[in-house]
Amino acid sequence: MTGIRAVDALAGLLLLGTALLLPAEALAHAKGLYKTQAEAEARARQLGCKGTHVNNGLWMPCGHEALLHKELREE
Questions:
Q1: Exposed/middle/buried for 42, CB within 10 Å: 0-12, 13-18, 19+?
Q2: Which end of the chain is more exposed for a tag (fewer CB within 10 A), N or C?
Q3: In which element (H, E) is residue 57 found?
Q4: The whole model's pTM is what?
């Protein structure tokens, strides 16, 4: 393995390891952020919750964040 390939492989492993250590709430955000309210509303229907809310300028399904996290854990 060349030096560049080894560095790329190591970087990939570090990213994977970091993702596995993230708390469920952080992963929920990755799954629940949408650019439009319509996308968030569609996801809310899939999850079985109602409404949407805004977080840092992006739309999230469900009327509030705690409900979104609950629904994502049950999915």
A1: middle
A2: N
A3: none
A4: 0.59
